[in-house]
Amino acid sequence: MKKALEDIVVLDLGQIYNGPYCSLMLAFQGAKVIKIEPIKGENLRVRRKGDSHELLMLNSNKKGVSIDLKSEEGKQLFLDLVKKADVVVENFSLGAMDRLGLGYEVLKKVNPGIIYASGKGYGLDGPYAERLAMDLTIQAMGGVMATTGFADKPPVKAGPALCDFLGGIHLFGGITTALYQREKTGKGQLIEVSMHDAIYPTLASALGAYYSSGGKVSQRTGNQHSGMATSPYNVYPTEDGNIAILCVADRQWHSLLRVMGREDLLADARFQTNVDRSANTKLVDEIVTSWTSNKKKLEVSDVLIEANVPHAPVLSIDEVADDPHLKYRKMIREIEHPEVGKIRVPGSPIRLSESPLEEVVAAPLLGEHTDEVLQEMLGLSEDQLKLLHQKNIIRQKEKVMQ
Amino acid sequence: MKKALEDIVVLDLGQIYNGPYCSLMLAFQGAKVIKIEPIKGENLRVRRKGDSHELLMLNSNKKGVSIDLKSEEGKQLFLDLVKKADVVVENFSLGAMDRLGLGYEVLKKVNPGIIYASGKGYGLDGPYAERLAMDLTIQAMGGVMATTGFADKPPVKAGPALCDFLGGIHLFGGITTALYQREKTGKGQLIEVSMHDAIYPTLASALGAYYSSGGKVSQRTGNQHSGMATSPYNVYPTEDGNIAILCVADRQWHSLLRVMGREDLLADARFQTNVDRSANTKLVDEIVTSWTSNKKKLEVSDVLIEANVPHAPVLSIDEVADDPHLKYRKMIREIEHPEVGKIRVPGSPIRLSESPLEEVVAAPLLGEHTDEVLQEMLGLSEDQLKLLHQKNIIRQKEKVMQ
User: Fold this and answer.
1) Which CATH class is domain A233-315?
2) Looking at beta carbons, which residues of chain A come within 8 Å of B212?
3) 8 Å CB contact of B123 and A329
4) What is the DSSP letter of B38?
5) At what angle do helices A297-307 and A250-259 cross, to 10 degrees?
6) What is the pLDDT of residues A165-206, one digit of tens each?
7) Cα–Cα distance between A108 and B225 in angstroms, integer?
8) Taking CB atoms and an 8 Å limit, are A210 and B58 in contact across chains?
9) Measured between alpha carbons, how far is A63 from A43 in angstroms, rounded to an integer?
C-alpha cells in the first residue's frame, strides 16, 4: 500500500515541542508537511546559535517556508496555501491566530474542508484558558509534580517534557480522526487539545489511591509503589548505577529469592504474599539491596532476565542515546544534515504494517523550501518571488555546501 | 455531524492502562467498544476487592463481555465477533495472542479489513522484545528516571504512568490513521506501538543538552532548567506549598521584579539578560524565594497572573481532583455507577468541534453485556447462551440493584 497519509498537505505553524511533534508524526506517515516560520525563525530555532538539536529532532521530513504572517501580503500567501491544504496545525498562545486575522472562522471560509488543529496549554475556554502555559507550569498545575519525587524532598518535575508531547500526540489522534470523518462528510472541523486535559488521565494511580482511601492525600513515594501496595517495587543501588525491580506475582518473588541465594526465605511468613511483603517493605528492600549493591547493574539485569523477574537497569542519557534496541527499532536514526553533519533524530513510534514510513530526511533550514513551495503550490513566478523577498515578506536561507 | 467514529466496532482486549486508554478514546469518539475480559476479569479488575477506581476511570462507555478465550468455543466466539468488527486492541505480553491462536495472521484471514492494534512494552521485535515490561521498567530503561529528580538524590520515577498513556495514545493515533487509509483501500493492517519507542522523543531537552554539549551527561537538575540555561526557572516554597515560576523573556523578569518590589534590580548588571541571570541562578532563586516564602501559593499566583509572568502553583492531588478548570472543561465528570455510587471519571482530551463526544456512561461490570452483545452481534439464542454459561465459557454479572 501507499503511505497512509500520502496525499495530505499540512500547514505546520507549530513551535517548540507540542505542535512540531504532532506534525512530525503526520510527516512520517507520508503527509506533505510545510513548516511555516516567521522571518526570524520559530522560537526553538532562535533559542541557540544555530539550529538546536531539539529543532532537528522534531522537524525531520518537513518543507521549510518562512513567511511574515503579520504583513498583508504574507497573510494572503497563507490563505492561498490554506485553499490547497488539508490540515493546519498551530500551538500559539490563546488568540494569537485570531489576532493575525487567521483564526479558524476565517480559514474555514476559504476552505470548508480544512482541519484546523489547535494545541493549547489550558484549552480554548475555561477559567485558566488565558494563562501562559509551558510544560513546567502544566506539570505544576496538573499534578505531575505533586506525585513525583521523595517524601522528604520538594515535589519535582518529570524530566521529559511529557505535557508537550502528550498534548501533541493527542492532537495527532484528533487530526487523523477528523481526516477519517472527512472522507465520509467532506467537511473539516476544529480540533482542540489542552495539555492540562491530556495529563489528567495519566494520574490514574494517584487518583485511584486518593479515591479508594476516602480522599486521603498520599505523600510522594519516590520509586516505591504509589499505594505502597506492591513489594518489592523500588529502584535499588548497584556498583555502577541503579536498577528497578518489582514483583507482581508470588512466583516472581520466589524466582528472585532463588537467584539471590535466599531460598531460606521461601517459606518465611513475613514474605508469603504481596500483602505480607508490603507490610515488610523496608526489610524486603534491605534484602534486595544487599544483593544488588555489590554488583554491576547489567550483571543484575542479566540474572533477572534469566529468572523472568520484572526489572530494568536505570539507563543514563548517554546509554539511552546509544541503546541497541532503540537503534534496532530505528527509533534512533543517524542522518546527514547539510550544516551540522551527522545527527541523530527519532523515528516514528507509530508503525503500520502495510504503510511504509517516510525515509527520514533532515529538518529544513529556515525557509529552505520557501521558493519551491510557493512556486509549486501557488504558481508564483520568479519575479513575484523576488519582489516578496525584497519586501522581506518571505525568506529563503541557502544551504551551506560542505 | 455524527460522532466521528459512529459506525466503528472495536474489540478491546486491553488491560491495566495502555490498551484501555486507547480504546476509551475510541469510545468517546463514538465507536462501539466491546471490552472482552477473561472469566475472572482483567488484571486491573482483580487488583482490588471490587472494581478499582483506575478501572472505572479508563473503561467508561464500553460494553462488558466476559469470554474464556482459552476454550475452543470461546475462541470461535471471538473469531465470529472479529468478522463483524473493525478494530482489535490488545496489550498482552509479547506472543500471548499467537499462543491463543488469535494472532493477527489468523484474524486477518477471517476479516481482511480488520485493524489489529498491538500495544507493547518494547515492541514486536528487537533485542529487548521478550522482556517483561511495565510502566516502571520502561521509565528506568527509557531515560525518564535518569532525567527526573535532584542531583543529590537517586533517580526517581515520574508520578504519572506516562509510558502506559503515551503508548496508548500513540496506538489510538495509529488506529485512526489506519481507519482513514482503509476508507481508500478497503484493507486493514497491523498497528504496533512500543512504550519504549514512544517515550524516546519526549527526552528532547535532555538529548539536546547531551548532543549540544558534545556528549556530556548532565546531572539531574531537580526543578531547574535541564540545561541550566533559563533563570528564574524553578519551584519556589510558599507558606502552604510550592509555586513554579519561570521567565523566558526579559520583560517577564522586569514584571517579576516590579511585583516583588525590587525595582532596584532592574538595571543590575548581574540580571540584565537571561545569560546573566543563568550565571547568577543561585542569587536569582534567593531573591524570588524571599518574596514567595511568606505568602500563600494562590496569593502569589494571583499577583503573577496580573503581571503576566509564567507560573503555576504546584497543586496537590486533592486540589487537582477538584480543579475548577478541569471541571469546566468536563475533564472531571461525576457519574453514577450501579455498585459504587457517585464516581469521578475523565472526559476526552480530544475535542472535535463538529463531532459530539459520547455522553459518559460508567464502566461495565464484568461481563455486564455478555448476553446482549452475543445476541445482537452473533444472533445467539437464549438456549445457546445458557449452555455457554453452564460450561463457564462466558460469564455475565448481574447489576446489583440499589
Assistant:
1) alpha beta
2) 48, 52-53
3) yes
4) -
5) 130
6) 999 999 999 999 999 999 999 999 999 999 999 999 999 999
7) 40
8) no
9) 17
Backbone phi and psi for residue B28, each to the nearest 5 degrees, phi listed first: -60, -30
Distance from CA of A53 to the nearest CA of B (A): 5
CA dist., res. B292 & res. B236, Å (int): 7
Per-residue pLDDT at B255 exceeds 60: yes
Point out the residue among A147, A197, A355 whose CB comes nearest to the CB of B160: A147
CB A289 within 8 A of CB A237: yes
From A164, A197, A285, A371, active-site residue: A164
Partner residue facing B310 (CB), from A137, A176, A331: A137
Residue B250 main-chain phi, psi, to 5 deg: -60, -35
- Are B324 and A127 in contact by the 8 Å Cβ rule? The answer is yes
When scoring B141, B220, B334 by the number of chain A Cβ atoms within 10 A, the one with the most, hence best to mutate, is B141
Identify whether the C-beta of residue B185 lies closer than 8 Å to the C-beta of residue A13.
no
pLDDT band of residue B215 (cuts 50, 70, 90) is: confident
Q: Let me know if domain B9-200+322-395 sits in CATH 3.20.20.70.
A: no
Are the Cβ atoms of B146 and A314 closer than 8 angstroms? Answer: yes
Q: Please judge whether A158 and B155 are an interchain contact, meaning their C-beta atoms are less than 8 angstroms apart.
A: no
The C-alpha atoms of residue B326 and residue A373 are separated, in whole angstroms, by 41
- Please report the sign of the dihedral spanned by the C-alpha atoms of residue A375, residue A379, residue A385, residue A388: negative
SS3 category, A207: helix
Comparing alpha-carbon positions, the chain B residue that sits nearest to A29 is: B177
Helix (H) or strand (E) holding A282: helix A281-292
Residue in chain A lying closest to B343 (CA): A211
Q: How far apart are CA B171 and CA B86, in angstroms?
A: 15
Strand partners, B11: B34, B88
Question: How far is the C-alpha of B367 from the C-alpha of B369, rounded, in Å?
Answer: 5
Per-residue pLDDT tens over the stretch A45-78: 876 666 789 999 999 999 999 999 999 999 999 9
Please tell me which residue in B51, B86, B164, B371 is annotated as part of the active site: B164
**Percentage of the residues of chain B whose pLDDT score is greater than 70:** 98
Determine the length of chain A.
402
Q: Which of A46, A51, A216, A350 to mutate to test the interface with B (most CBs of B within 10 A)?
A: A350
Element holding A255 (H helix, E strand): helix A250-259
Q: Reply yes or no on whether B135 is catalytic.
A: no
Domain B233-316: top CATH class: alpha beta
Contacts of A169 in chain B (CB under 8 A): 166, 169-170, 173, 198
Residues from chain B contacting residue A126 (CB–CB below 8 Å): 325, 328-329
pLDDT over threshold 50, residue A8? yes
Check B183 against A183: CB less than 8 A apart.
Answer: yes
Does the predicted interface ipTM exceed a cut of 0.95?
yes
Nearest CA in chain A to B230: A47
CB contact under 8 A, A146 and B314: yes
User: Which band of pLDDT confidence, cut at 50, 70 and 90, is reported for residue A346?
Assistant: very high
Cβ–Cβ under 8 Å, residues A93 and A16: no
Q: What are the grid coordinates assigned to A280, written together?
A: 515488610
**Ranges of each domain in chain A:** 9-200+322-395, 233-315
The residue type at A180: Y
Q: Do the beta carbons of residue B58 and residue B68 sit within 8 Å? A: no
When pLDDT is cut at 50, 70 and 90, the band that residue B402 belongs to is very low
Chain A positions touching B57 (Cβ under 8 A) are: 201, 204, 207-208
User: B149: which chain A residues are within 8 Å (Cβ-Cβ)?
Assistant: 149-150, 156, 159
Nearest CA to B370 among B49, B1, B68, B2? B68
Q: How far apart are CA A395 and CA A68, in angstroms?
A: 9
Instruction: Tell me whether residues A143 and B248 touch, CB distance under 8 A.
Output: no
